[in-house]
Amino acid sequence: MNLDFFKNNNISVDLAIEAHDIVRGQLETEIPGAVVDRHNYENATVTVVKIVEPQAAQMMGKPIGTYITIDAPAIRDNNRVAQKEVAEILAAQLSSLFNLPENANVLLVGLGNWQATPDSLGPRVVDQTIVTRHLYKYAPEELQGGMRSVSALAPGVLGITGIETAEIIKGVVEKIQPDLIVAIDALAAGSVERIGSTIQLADTGVSPGSGIGNKRTGINKETMGVKTIAIGVPTVVHAAVIAQVTSEHFLEKLQQNPMFSQIYNNLSPDYAQDVINSVLAPFAGNLMVTPKEIDDLILSTSKIIAGGVSMALHPAINAEQYSMYLN
Q1: Which of 26, 82, 86, 316 is the most buried (most CB within 10 A)?
Q2: Reaction(s) catalyzed by this protein (predicted)?
Q3: How many domains does the chain contain in total?
Q4: Which residue has the higher pLDDT, 252 or 240?
Q5: What is the CATH number of the domain that holds 179?
């Protein structure tokens, strides 16, 4: 698949690593102005994509910034050892993006709709993350060194509140004046393999609902006036992507078979796109797909992200103390 397919189907590419691979595949060379670095761990691969030039940003459809992708298929296997390692990797990568003093004030924002499982990642993470701002005011004796002032918010979605998410967050930001915002949101993947197995970090903030075609005010430094780190996990994939991949594999098999190669040669280049448009017409081309085990995937990934965020923000807290500070 190329960028034209995504543009023709009005599909946003949420993951920077996917946008990079698509553009690089079209260019058949490295993207000028984009730097990629990879590190392998026992249960995960970390890929850092840095977009440093406007040209690369325009080609990839992403703002200039740093995008860190943690690929860990073991997350889907409910492997506790692997999940612990992923949480520790996440904490280390977040710490490299935070660059915060110990007395920093941090606001966590869980974006999404808690009533819709594939979109409930943000609120689930907030529910399991250590918040301490109230302790600083009402119970300072419960605190220890190495803990930061952290508050959390799950603002819901426009359809439930009637208020733009950015407006709610902006009001809270003006009141508590955080040094950093960490926004957690569900993403749309460009392949089924990445659902529930990939975590993306970005120092460019987030656009709520962009993965499913909704254009909302971004949560970033420009709109909030505060440095914003985004954490996202793909929980859905566009049906057109699945249909396109299926069509491509089918046509490849057709081409390889001497009995049907002539049929393949006579097909119009737009044949697959016409079929996809016809199948998805009842949904106006906007059908999202999520696996039936999405409940378990959300539970696993929310625990990993909450653990990684808590470790990064409160380096003095160990696993044994973690549950004591929840709620």
Answers
A1: 86
A2: Endopeptidase action with P4 Glu or Asp, P1 preferably Glu > Asp, P1' hydrophobic and P2' Ala
A3: 1
A4: 240
A5: 3.40.50.1450
